Amino acid sequence: MTPLVKAHSPLAFLLVYVRARPWHFGVLVGLVIGAGACGVAVQYGMKAENLRSSA
């Protein structure tokens, strides 16, 4: 369980939990980056398919 700490700012509040569970937040960041990469890849694929079909 994380210690009860009074944070002076929102960033300090979040850092308490990030420091307590670094692997969880690392995985979360990886998932967000992966989702963004998949979104970009889908848009790229749709644009390439659109260019192929109109040519």
Describe this structure in a few short sentences.
The chain has 55 residues and is an all-alpha fold.
Strand-helix topology:
Elements (H helix, E strand, L loop, with lengths): L9 H11 L1 H33 L1
Structural account:
The structure is a single chain. The chain is mostly helical and 55 residues long. The chain has a domain at 22-54. 80% of the residues lie in helices and 0% in strands. The chain has two helices and no strands. The protein has helices at residues 10-20, 22-54. The longest helix has 33 residues, at 22-54. The protein is rod-shaped. The model has no long low-confidence stretch (mean pLDDT 88).
Mean pLDDT: 88
Determine Rg (CA atoms, Å). 20 Å
The separation of the N and C termini measures 60 Å
* Main sheet overview: none
The rough form would be described as rod-shaped
Number of strands: 0
List the uncertain runs. Answer: none
| Annotation field: number of helices | 2
Helix content: over 70%
Order of helices and strands: HH
Relative strand content: under 5%
Q: Kindly name the structural category.
A: mainly alpha
